[in-house]
Each structure stands twice: as structure tokens, then as C-alpha cells.
Design goal:
The chain starts with a strand and ends with a strand. The protein is globular, with a radius of gyration of 14 Å. The chain is an alpha+beta fold and 119 residues long. It contains two helices and nine strands; from the N terminus they run E-E-E-E-E-E-H-E-H-E-E. It has a seven-stranded mixed β-sheet, with helices on one face. It has a two-stranded antiparallel sheet with strand order 1-2.
Length: 119
């Protein structure tokens, strides 16, 4: 990844998992759920991305993945995580709000929300 969210980054950290036959059971590997962190040039913040397959949403997977991403960012000494969410992605916006994460309008585009997590 040379760019992530439209910005140049030095490092991308990606972790994935795949599902077994029963919902809620996860094991390491690459698969339908994916999360990523990319360090920003300031070395104090990062961008994040989170994807959960439609059939696995609303089962707590995104919540667990997001908490794990925040833990990884803290362990790496980062102070802030940033992301962008489409304004009509209500499930993701609900997830962010359930984690008490700041969601604000994107200044240049009302179809996007900015997400900022102070670690």
C-alpha cells in the first residue's frame, strides 16, 4: 500500500481472520473480515480500515476487531486513529458511536464522516 485513504503512509499493519462454519467462531488467517492500520507520517497517528462481510455483521465481530485495533495502536505508542466512513454506512457509524468514538462531518464532502479516536 503506497497510499491509504488518499495519504502516503510508511507502514501498513494488516490482520485478518476467516470464519468457520458457525457464526462467532474465528481463527487466524486471511478471509472475509479484515482490519488494517497505516501509520501517518507524523508517527503519532494512524489511519484504520475495518471490513466485516455482510452475513457476519451485527454479531459483535466489528466491535472485537475495533477494540483489538485500538489495543495494537496503543501498544505501538500511537496517540490517535483516524478513519473515514460513508455517511450512509449506518452499521459502521453505530459501531463507532457504541465505542464512544468521535464522528464528525467531513468538511469537503457530506457523503463522508470523519472518525477520530483519541487513544
Amino acid at each position: 500500500f503506497a497510499t491509504f485513504g488518499g495519504r502516503h503512509i510508511d507502514t501498513v499493519f494488516a490482520v485478518g481472520c476467516e470464519h468457520t462454519m458457525q457464526p462467532g467462531q474465528l481463527h487466524p488467517g486471511l478471509g472475509h473480515q479484515r482490519r488494517q492500520l497505516g501509520d501517518n507520517p507524523d508517527k503519532r497517528s494512524c489511519e484504520f480500515a475495518l471490513v466485516v462481510a455482510d452475513e457476519w455483521q451485527r454479531q459483535g465481530i466489528g466491535h472485537k476487531l475495533m477494540n483489538h485495533l485500538m489495543e495494537i495502536a496503543r501498544d505501538r505508542g500511537l496517540e490517535r486513529m483516524e478513519g473515514e466512513v460513508l455517511s450512509n454506512n449506518f452499521k459502521m457509524l453505530d459501531l463507532m458511536k457504541s465505542l464512544y468514538i468521535q464522528v464528525t462531518p467531513y468538511p469537503e464532502d457530506n457523503s463522508i464522516k470523519q472518525v477520530t479516536i483519541e487513544l
